[in-house]
């Protein structure tokens, strides 16, 4: 049976249902101390490239194109190892993907959760 994959803001309180907590942002969340994040891992290499992140600028109108470009990046050599590691985690544990982004439904965490879920079903 597939383990659940969820995503939410890193600033929210932890939950017993979180399972493995993985930060998927390239930069550390502003104002958060490392010991307060309660992370199992910080997987910065699975985050969108700096260029893509800057282009997107968290503009919801650009989300569909951001999603398309980000999924292409996940197949590239620069992301492949981190993406594979994240797939391994998702296959064995309940997983919560964390981001500092305010609009989590238009974030890389949302794209990753969908990508991981779709990848397991095929």
Sum up the structure in keywords.
globular; 122 residues; alpha/beta
Task: Please tell me the total number of domains.
Answer: 1
Instruction: Note the run of SSEs as H and E.
Output: EEHEHHHEH
Q: Tell me roughly what share of residues is in helical segments.
A: 40-55%
Rg, nearest Å: 14 Å
Question: Which residue ranges are poorly predicted, with pLDDT under 50 across at least 5 consecutive positions?
Answer: none
SS elements, strand count: 4
Q: Mean of the pLDDT scores?
A: 92
Number of helices: 5
Dominant shape: globular
Strand order in the sheet with the most strands: 1-4-2-3
What layout of secondary structure does this protein have?
Blueprint: E1 5-9, E2 20-23, H1 34-37, E3 41-42, H2 50-56, H3 63-75, H4 77-92, E4 95-99, H5 108-121
Parallel strand pairs: 1-4, 2-3, 2-4
Helix pairs in contact: 2-3
Protein name: DUF488 family protein
InterPro entries: YeaO-like
Pfam family, one: DUF488-N3i
Concise summary:
InterPro entries: YeaO-like. 44% of the residues lie in helices and 13% in strands.
Explain how this protein is built.
This protein is of the alpha/beta class. It has one domain (5-121). It has helices at residues 34-37, 50-56, 63-75, 77-92, 108-121, and strands spanning 5-9, 20-23, 41-42, 95-99. The protein has a 4-stranded parallel beta sheet with strand order 1-4-2-3, covered by helices on one side. Helix 2 (50-56) runs antiparallel to helix 3. The longest helix has 16 residues, at 77-92. The chain is globular, with a radius of gyration of 14 Å. It starts with a strand and ends with a helix.
């Amino acid at each position: 049976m597939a383990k659940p994959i969820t995503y939410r803001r890193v600033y929210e309180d932890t939950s017993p249902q979180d399972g493995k907590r993985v930060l998927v942002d390239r930069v550390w969340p502003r104002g958060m101390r490392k010991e307060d994040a309660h992370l199992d891992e910080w997987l910065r290499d699975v985050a969108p490239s700096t260029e893509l992140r800057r282009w997107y600028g968290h503009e919801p109108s650009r989300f569909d194109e951001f999603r398309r470009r980000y999924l292409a990046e996940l197949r590239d050599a620069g992301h492949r190892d981190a993406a594979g590691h994240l797939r391994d985690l998702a296959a064995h544990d309940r997983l919560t993907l964390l981001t500092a982004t305010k609009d989590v439904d238009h974030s890389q965490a949302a794209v990753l959760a969908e990508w991981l879920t779709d990848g397991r079903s095929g």
